[in-house]
Each structure stands twice: as structure tokens, then as C-alpha cells.
Amino acid sequence: MAVLPQRDPARNRPRNVVTEPPVRAVIVLGTRPEAIKLAPVVRAMDASPLWEPFVVSSGQHREMLAPMLAALDVKAHTDLAVMRDRQRLSSLTGRLVTALDVTLRAERPDVVVVQGDTTTALCGALAASYEQIPVAHVEAGLRTGNLYNPFPEELNRRLIARIARWHFAPTESAAAHLRAEGIAGPDVRTTGNTVIDNLHWMLRQGRGEAAFRTAGKRVLVTLHRRENQGSGMRGLAGAVRRLADRGDCEVLLPLHKSPAVREALLPGLSGHPGVTICEPLGYPDFTATLAACDLVLTDSGGVQEEAPSLGKPVLVLRTTTERPEAIDAGVARLVGTDPGEVYAAASRLLDDPAERDRMARAVNPFGDGRAAERILAALVRGCLRPDAARFPARD
Ligand code: UD1
Ligand code: UDP
């Protein structure tokens, strides 16, 4: 029996709790969506004497990560600062695996937790497996079936699935993808997506302000995917411009920091009176903005999951999606990337309030807000088997 060390006395953890040694978890995150989706897991670990979390920021996103972590009440214990301007996947991967190896050898955790499908997540899993440290994968099992779309995310998540020991699938269909790949058994759990936990947490606090300037029809647009960059994204900028040309709506575009995104979007859209362009919004303001809009046009994964929960119709500007649940529920449509079709689909929804209302139903196909709780209960059973009786598995 050991007295829990108080790694961070500023945190609200119970003091001097006598128990088994806590589970030492390294949580690896590096981009905006990983911060958002791992925050509920970190906050739950922070609040529990059973866990000793150590948060590694890879720094894959330099500017977009730090404010996000602060807004989410998550503190990174170390920052590997790997980001370079216009980073290439191979050199980013080299820097990440090298730096993560040093951290993991120093920390020697019981488990490494990674999320989703970014290069940070893949490298976190790879560096952990080189040190034979078991990996837990949050948001496991998403698939489009196309290795190059989204790229490199489909590749990353398939590779992480081969490495991970615990697989936390957000939905039944994600768990079914894992089973179809021969990954099954008690270490695959359907938990819901932690993005919904975080959305509820944020909205409960009532922080944040919508970034729209006007009170008319409000269209929120986010674009960043690598496979859309270049001519595809320039075409999408044209579609958005035509939408703003209608003169009856305000288009709000919080711009991703990627220079490739800015080069594609700014020439066609800056200076247009119907388009409000801003820097990436902090999470409190982004969620308030999402809650205030009438229509979402996006290629983002996270936004596809959050918008249905707030009853916002979504047009997905991609040719594939690994999140079919929102489409099946009738609240999202996969409209592709052809500018004419994107314009027509968005215009139709703006012209037809009844059609918009049919899509604007709040549904939660991605989770009920208790994903982190389920993940920790399952993980603690996995990592602390002798202690498992105190943590009954939850559905
Ligand atoms: C990354 C993820 C993608 C995820 C997205 C979320 C990979 C390969 N891609 O894509 O899965 O959907 O994050 O936003 O992991 N930059 C800055 N400051 C920042 C962030 C980015 O200047 O805070 C610029 C840099 O020039 C950087 C470039 O954006 O090189 C691209 O960043 P990167 O993380 O490689 O790719 P994303 O497109 O952001
Ligand atoms: N987001 C944000 N500010 C913005 C745009 C998005 O906080 O200006 C949040 C959004 O709520 C969602 C997440 O960022 O949870 C999505 O990140 P992104 O689109 O960059 O990545 P993806 O989800 O596609 O991997």
C-alpha cells in the first residue's frame, strides 16, 4: 500500500489517500482536436486518486494548442515543440518519435493514451510500442475504407489499431470495423465520443460568445483537410463566395493556421462584405458560435460530431466520411467538393426553412457525454486488474 504522491498540489485531488499506487498514464496530444477530445479523460484522471496523468504536448500545433488547453482546464507537463512551418509528414514523424521516445523512457508509464488519427497519435503509439508500453486508443475504429481519404488519417488510425491494446470505439459501427479487422474481445469497448463530454462541459459553463456580426441567416464554415488543399479548396472558396453573393446571409470563416489553407481561401474570400474571416476561435467562442448558427459547412471531423448534438444541419465538404452516423440520422449530408454542388446544396437549405428544420434536430449519435467515465473504468480494470472489483464495467 502506498500514499499517493501529489504530483500537482494545485489540482483538486484528494490528499493522502491510501490505496494501490496510482496508474501512471502518459497522455499524448498535439493538435486542436486531440486536446478537445482528450480533455475529459485528463480532467477525470486529475480528479481521481487512482490516476497519475502526465500530459505530453507534442506541439504539432504551436499556436492552436496552448489556448485550447487553457480553455479546457488541462495543463501539459511537457511540450516537445515539434511544429515547423509547412511541416512534412515524414520529418514531423521523425521528430515526434525521437522526442516521444526520450519522454517515455524518462516517465515509464503503465499506459500511453492516444486519440484519433493524427501524426502525433500515430507517433505516440509507435514510440510507446518500441518501449513495450501498452497503448490505449481513444476514438478507435473510424474508417472510410479509402487509405488516401482522409489522408493521412485513415492510414494513421489503421496503424494505431494494430499497435493498441485497448480500443475505445465511439460508436457501434466503429467497433464493428475493428471486429472486421480481427480486433475483438473485452479490450474493445464502445464508449461514445469524448467530444460530446467536452461539448456538454463547455456549454454548461456558459462562457464564450458567438462570433457572428449580424442577426440574419448565419453560416459557419471550417475547412482544413490536406486532401482538400490546393485547387479543391480554392473551388470550395468559390462556392462559399457565391453563397455570400446571395446577400441574405453572413458567412463566418474561422481560419485554420495552416498556410496552405490560407493560400487557398483568402484570395477568393477576403474583403467580401458577406464573409467574416477570423483567426481560429477559442473553444468557448467556437461552441457558442456553433450554437448560434443556422447552417454548417465543414470538412472537420470534430465539427461533424458536435453540430448534430446542437441540432445544426451540416453539409460535409468531403467525398468520404468516417462519421456516417450523423448522415444516417438525417442531420448531415455528404455533399462532396464540387463547387457547383456545394453551392446548390447550401443555397437550397437557405431558401427552404422547412427543409432546414427537418435537418435541425438535436441528436446524439456520437455519445451521451459519459465516454471518458467509461474509458477510465475500462482502463483501470485493464491496468489495475487486482483492484478491478472497485470499478464495475459500465455499458
Ligand atoms: C492536423 C492533423 C489533422 C487534423 C488537424 C486538426 C495530421 C497529419 N493532421 O492537420 O488530422 O484534422 O490537425 O486541425 O496529423 N500551423 C501553424 N500553427 C498551428 C497549427 C498549424 O502555423 O498552431 C501551420 C504550420 O505551418 C504547420 C501547418 O499549419 O506546418 C500544418 O499543420 P499540421 O499539424 O501538419 O496539419 P493540419 O492540417 O493542421
Ligand atoms: N474548433 C475550435 N475553433 C475553431 C474551429 C474549430 O475550437 O475556430 C474546434 C471544434 O469545436 C472541433 C475541433 O476544433 O471540436 C475540430 O478541429 P479541426 O476541425 O481542426 O480538426 P478535425 O476534427 O477535423 O480533426
TrEMBL record:
EC number(s) from the headed UniProt entry: 5.1.3.14
Keywords from the UniProt entry: Isomerase
Enzyme class, spelled out: isomerase
InterPro entries with a match to the protein in the record: UDP_GlcNAc_Epimerase_2_dom, WecB-like
Entry GO MF terms: UDP-N-acetylglucosamine 2-epimerase activity
Domain UDP-N-acetylglucosamine 2-epimerase stretches: 44-379
Pfam families: Epimerase_2
Origin superkingdom: Bacteria
Cited NCBIfam families: wecB
Family label: Belongs to the UDP-N-acetylglucosamine 2-epimerase family.
Protein name, as recorded: UDP-N-acetylglucosamine 2-epimerase (non-hydrolyzing)
Organism of origin: Actinomadura soli
